[in-house]
Design a protein that fits this description.
Layout lengths: L1 E4 L2 E4 L16 E5 L5 E6 H10 L3 E6 L6 E5 L1 H18 L5 E6 L5 H17 L2 E7 L8 H14 L4 E10 L2 E8 L1
Parallel strand pairs: 3-6, 7-8
Antiparallel strand pairs: 1-2, 3-4, 5-6, 8-10, 9-10
Amino acid sequence: MPYQKNNYYYRSNKPKGPKINERIRAKEVQVITNDGKNLGTLSTREAVDLAKQQGLDLIEISPNANPPVCKIIDIGKYKYDLQKKANKAKKKQKIMNLKEIKLRPVTEIHDYNFKIKNAQRFLEKGDKVKFTVRFKGREMQHTDLGSKLMDRIINDTSKMGKVEIHPKFEGKQIIMIIQPL
């Protein structure tokens, strides 16, 4: 990423990833072979020469150790293994979305059933569902209808999910979040 200094643009040349071969600045390093055998502490120059003789690279694995720990392996294979681990971790991740369903206290039964079916489908997929009951005008005098509607929603979705955030009033609406079981 370029950055600006005194109206000139400079490009950052800092390499990404671990230090390899001649980029290792420590005088001495702890060396481990590609089959896991510990060769002990060697000078960096000796370790790099040893790696080159085997046709491999010296890679700094633990730079904060004293002396730094380096391993003799192929850099391409090392990067491939790191990428594979990252992809495996990403695959195991579950992204949870928040779906919102808006209702009114006077929502008819057919519309209500349709919205509850959608909510159950969302919960089966593993998404959270946010229910919002909005009041308009004189409906604010009948907030008990909204509370009864929220209780009914809790009963109808109890097999698929549990209440994460209980119904609460925010301005002219009641909000509740249900998460999958």
